[in-house]
């Protein structure tokens, strides 16, 4: 009987301690949101590949996260818009809608960009750099802001 009580106490205290250490504090969450939201983020990488726009490109892939949990931006050809949800450092994007223009020189990048956005499961913000990551923490997209 005594062993069962000790085991139950140890299990309960382990869950309690783990829950407390894995929960981000609210000050950190507010700081992360202020770094993420209401900024124009311009694409620098898709996966491990650096993105460099063509010299004649007028529409560079970009994204904005509003404080109203709406997302907007460009895939390099079309405007995109939708919603996102946050829980700590975890992010869910979608569903997304977009305009349907044809851009002969940027359709490939637009497709890659949209496919990458569908893989996003989290984010990391460091000063003027935003990384959107997949479920394993691998960089899917990376941006910079002025």
Automatic annotation (TrEMBL):
InterPro entries: DUF306_Meta_HslJ, HslJ-like_sf, Hsp_HslJ-like. The lineage of its organism: Bacteria, Pseudomonadati, Pseudomonadota, Gammaproteobacteria, Moraxellales. Residues 1-19 form the signal peptide. This is META domain-containing protein. It comes from Acinetobacter nematophilus. It comes from the Bacteria. Pfam families: META (PF03724). Residues 36-143 form the DUF306 domain. PANTHER family: HEAT SHOCK PROTEIN HSLJ (PTHR35535). Coiled coil: none annotated. Keywords: Signal.
């Amino acid at each position: 009987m005594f062993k069962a009580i000790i085991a139950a106490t140890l299990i309960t205290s382990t869950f309690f301690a783990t829950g407390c250490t894995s929960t981000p504090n609210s000050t950190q969450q507010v700081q992360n949101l202020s770094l993420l939201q209401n900024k124009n983020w311009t694409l620098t990488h898709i996966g491990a590949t650096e993105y460099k726009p063509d010299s004649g490109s007028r529409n560079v892939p970009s994204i904005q996260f509003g404080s109203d949990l709406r997302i907007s931006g460009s895939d390099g050809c079309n405007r995109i818009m939708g919603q996102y949800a946050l829980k700590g450092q975890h992010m869910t994007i979608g569903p997304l809608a977009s305009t349907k223009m044809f851009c002969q020189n940027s359709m490939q990048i637009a497709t890659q960009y949209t496919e990458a956005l569908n893989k996003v499961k989290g984010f990391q913000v460091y000063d003027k750099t935003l990384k959107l990551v997949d479920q394993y923490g691998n960089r899917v997209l990376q941006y910079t802001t002025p």
